[in-house]
Amino acid sequence: MAKDLVGIYNLALSAAGTQSKVSLPTEVSREAEICNRWYESVRDQILCAAFWSSCKGICSPAVVSERDYGIAWATGAPQPPWRFMYAMPADFLYPRYTDLFQMFEMGDNEGSPVMFTNQEAPTFLYTKKQTTPSAWSADLFMAMVQGLAAHI
Prior knowledge:
With about 150 residues, the protein is an alpha+beta fold. About 30% of the residues lie in helices and about 25% in strands.
């Protein structure tokens, strides 16, 4: 079975006990519709469930703002008690840790995910949104099949 979306769909349908198969994810069929309905949310949930080797991301995030403790807190500054607000990369899905294992908190800045921390210039490890099944490890691929089957 190919490590692609059609392969995931067909293995999940089989694990769910159906005889039906799909040829394309975009085909007009009840099976494809159900798989498409659940796929993205199940994928993201499974990617977040473990720090899969094929989905590890590392970055030195860009500073969005730094809090000046000499003045009163204002909108746009990192939320108290944090000193820095860092932007997350576009492929960010789930936080893991910083290189110095410093405390941090995830938040939102105008619809974009940000990290609040007191660590200056951290290296941040995270789960990236790896959407290409052929890049996944075998255990992640099968976890995706089983997760999708459970929702079918």
